[in-house]
Amino acid sequence: MHTAFKKTTTFLNVGGVSSKKVCSYQDILDYLNLTAANDAFKMTRPVLDHTHRTVAQLDIFLYAILAVIEKSQTFVPFIWIMMTWHNERISWDPAQFCGITQISIPESMLWKPDIFISEMTEKDNSNRNPYMYVFHDGMVRSEEDMRVVSTCQIDIHKFPFDTQSCTITASSAVHADDEFQLISSSNSSQLTKFSRELMMPLGEWDFLHLSITKNNLSFAGKHWDQLLYTFTIKRRPLLHVINFLFPVLFFLCLDLASFLISDHRGDKLGFKVTVLLAISVLLLILNDILPSMSNRTPLIATYCIVIFALMLLSVLETILVMYLMERASASKEKQKVTDVQDKDLFNCNTEEKSQTSCTCIFALSSNDSSHELPPGAEVNSKETGETRVLLLILKELKEVQKTFNLLLSSRDGRPVTEDWITRLNRVFFAFYFISVVLFLSFMWKEWSS
Question: Which listed residue, of 315, 392, 413, 449, carries a Cα 20 to 30 Å from 329's Cα?
């Protein structure tokens, strides 16, 4: 098939004459007639019969996870691609070339499969391996490192305890499956094991698994082989837990502890409002972390919004309690004034009047107004009995009013309204505490599932 170009050199030894063949890689290139100027090896698919399919074995290994950008739904891995295919135009006998079984040549000298990644959004500018290996049986192997900027459907529902699965699809851009067949030489477990040995477990993400599936794409009556490499990674949540989740939880505990502050002091409301503003600042930080659009509401957003709503409800309850306490205090002061005025309410003399007439003036202070009985004309001694009966009736009415005022009094001298407000505050604290415990339990269950 080829005319062998051989170089031999004879070495003289002390004990006699012996010959030893000296071979070089250039000898193989000359034998194959493989030079940079020979376009026959790189212009067309390397088959002797066009009906033969070129079978390429592809393996992709993970070196590192450079970035996972939630806002732009971008996955940036650094991968190692190893591809092997058969070139029917290249072969030699190692015995004729001092046992040389492989050589390395510039990749521009031979045809190479046009493998591309479907999800890639940016051109790779990293340094490529300029050489490929050629074996004596016609097998060609290409190895290169690549920084891939690809799209990925990132689900942040369980952020920061989320697990993501991003896929890289490799296929030929020109050759259909009747000309070019793409297969994987390693299974999923082998790819996962070797990737774990290659990569360094640094950064925000942990590599869990690499799986491979084969797909066939149909378009315009033709079919293309595709290999889908799915990278499963898990976020390391410690940084987000310390910087975000714990501070929100601490503020919630402070809000619970604020119930121990007396309601009579105005600084309780100021303290609660300050804690509420601190939560608002953390919500702004969360807005910078999470993407603006998502298929499902992130649990961390639910976590912050519900805690914010509970604390807002706590502030409103404090405002209501302080308002009721002010009303109770005003009512108590008013009752004291009423009791003082009740002592002078009844000023009529109930003893028998020796005079022929008398005038009774009554001050009805309950409505902060005075009413004076119309001064009667001089009453003779026959009307003295009727006047005494009217005075007794008025006296009984005032006793009934005093009894009614006593019913509005509480035990130990405190108004009933204050006792009712205290009970309301305790009931709200119990409801608040139970709601917080149930909500945190629900969030832990959802995040850990």
Answer: 315
